[in-house]
């Protein structure tokens, strides 16, 4: 009897465990162009009328975990300029690659519709900024998201962090520095090999804290510096340049912070930017303007404290819905343009692209919320020979020039009053740079960005040489 009862209990336990495992459906596939068979990067993959979603990586691949309660809802795969693919979640076939067909609207047809509508790129962008108060969130909300922060040269990763984030914003109209908060909830990966080659950060740290203005990094020797001191300088430099505060509360949050003093898309936007209407595309059945961003008459400057960050010109694209002038996507680069900035950028970074930013927005309950952010910037380090000898310099270029990339995928929007009230009173920490305990259970069903094939290999190589923090 006891044996039979024990078997029943074991069977019940295994049954419950099976239900827990199947409480989520994993969708995993590749999205490609129907005609060219090329992968489509940054395609949106989401459950219709929910905030559950992700984007495809550079290989066109994605993975999305969907709670079983949504299995009868519609899965949408869409990309600007293509016809959307739709199917019930329960019928999605992980073994069949998804192909999207091109879908382009007629520019002439759209422009003739109404004479009172703006017709030039400048007019359309100004109308979109004017309509932000209608299109952006007008009440407090919380978003859950995933961050991948990576630092690398052309050969390998030097640093990788993956974290779960919570963002609280008290509306578009409020000042971001006081009313937008970010918290790092969990960390999945944290590998760091930068202590061998970050003397520029150490020199900057000493200049800033010890007033050693004449100090040069090439006068420093790594073997004379304590690792703990160097790591302290690296963390200071990380927070100064690549902290989440700079990305969300500063000028690079182009749309959210448009009303801030000195905003890049603010009051004098046409002094530093010119917008040219290129064509009209279609996104999930809706027309949107594709508008080219180019330089204005003045240079763009970020005016970053203690950092020379002036003399840029803007380049990129902005996509705006035709029907309500909501901004759907911004692709924005700042290119070194002044003589001083060009010399500095080429010498220190081997590139004239100093800032590359992509902002995706998702419409939910008639408001536009950030859904995906990509930010890339070169970084100062000191490794290899930087002499003018071309042959001597050629061999280590792949190692001596670094850049940092931050990708953020938002997967949930919360309007619950109780959750919002608790958020106001909790302690918030946006420090992504400190190691944290690894919570394996938390990550089991958390939606993350899928690594590209190249990234996966580089992460494997990095993990063999550095330790994952599991305190």
How would you sum up this structure, described in words?
Helix 6 (about 200-210) packs across helix 7. The protein has about 475 residues and is α+β, with helices and mostly antiparallel strands. It is globular and about 65 Å long. The protein has two domains: about 25-100, Carboxypeptidase-like, regulatory domain (Immunoglobulin-like, Sandwich), CATH 2.60.40; about 120-465, no CATH class. It has helices at about 1-20, 105-110, 120-130, 130-135, 175-180, 200-210, 225-240, 245-250, 270, 340-350, 390-395, 395-400, 415-425, 440-445, 455-465; strands at about 25-35, 45, 55, 60-65, 75-80, 85-90, 100, 140-150, 155-170, 180-190, 275-285, 285-295, 310-320, 325-335, 355-365, 365-380, 400-415. It has a ten-stranded antiparallel beta sheet, with helices on both faces. Strands 3-2-5-6 form a four-stranded antiparallel beta sheet, with no helix packed on it. The chain has 15 helices and 17 strands. The relative contact order is 0.15.
């Amino acid at each position: 009897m006891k044996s039979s009862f024990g078997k029943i209990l074991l069977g019940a336990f295994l049954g419950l465990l099976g239900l827990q495992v199947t409480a989520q459906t994993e969708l995993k596939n590749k999205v490609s162009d129907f005609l060219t068979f090329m992968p489509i990067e940054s395609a949106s993959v989401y459950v219709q009328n929910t905030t559950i979603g992700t984007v495809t990586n550079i290989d066109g691949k994605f993975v999305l975990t969907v709670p079983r309660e949504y299995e009868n809802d519609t899965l949408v795969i869409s990309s600007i300029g293509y016809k959307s693919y739709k199917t019930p979640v329960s019928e999605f076939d992980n073994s069949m690659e998804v192909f999207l067909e091109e879908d382009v609207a007629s520019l002439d047809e759209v422009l003739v519709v109404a004479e009172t509508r703006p017709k030039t790129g400048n007019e359309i962008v100004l109308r979109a900024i004017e309509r932000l108060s209608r299109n952006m969130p007008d009440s407090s909300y919380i978003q859950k998201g995933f961050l991948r922060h990576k630092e690398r040269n052309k050969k390998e990763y030097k640093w990788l962090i993956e974290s779960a984030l919570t963002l609280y914003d008290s509306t578009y109209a409020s000042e971001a520095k006081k009313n937008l908060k970010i918290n790092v909830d969990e960390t999945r990966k944290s590998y760091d090999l930068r202590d061998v080659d970050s003397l520029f950060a150490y020199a900057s740290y000493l200049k800033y804290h010890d007033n050693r203005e004449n100090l040069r990094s090439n006068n420093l020797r790594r073997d004379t510096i304590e690792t703990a001191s160097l790591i302290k300088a690296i963390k200071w430099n990380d927070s100064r340049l690549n902290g989440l505060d700079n990305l969300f509360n500063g000028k690079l949050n182009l749309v959210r912070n448009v009303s801030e003093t000195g905003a890049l898309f603010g009051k004098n936007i046409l002094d530093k930017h010119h917008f040219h209407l290129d064509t009209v595309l279609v996104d999930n059945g809706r027309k949107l303007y594709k508008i080219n961003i180019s330089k204005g008459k003045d240079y763009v400057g970020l005016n970053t404290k203690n950092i020379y960050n002036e003399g840029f010109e803007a380049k990129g694209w902005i996509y705006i819905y035709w029907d309500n002038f909501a901004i759907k996507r911004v692709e924005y680069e700042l290119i070194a343009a002044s003589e001083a900035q060009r010399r500095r950028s080429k010498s220190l970074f081997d590139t004239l692209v100093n800032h590359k930013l992509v902002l995706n927005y998702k419409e939910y309950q008639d408001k536009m919320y950030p859904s995906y952010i990509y930010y890339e910037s070169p970084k100062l380090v000191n490794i290899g020979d930087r002499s003018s000898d071309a042959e001597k310099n050629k061999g280590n270029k792949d190692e001596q020039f670094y850049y940092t990339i931050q990708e953020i995928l938002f997967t949930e929007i919360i309007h619950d009053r109780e959750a919002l009230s608790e958020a106001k009173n909790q302690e918030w920490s946006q420090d992504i740079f400190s190691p944290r305990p690894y919570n394996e259970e938390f990550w089991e069903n958390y939606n993350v960005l899928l690594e590209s094939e190249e990234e996966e290999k580089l992460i494997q190589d990095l993990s063999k040489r550095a330790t994952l923090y599991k305190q």
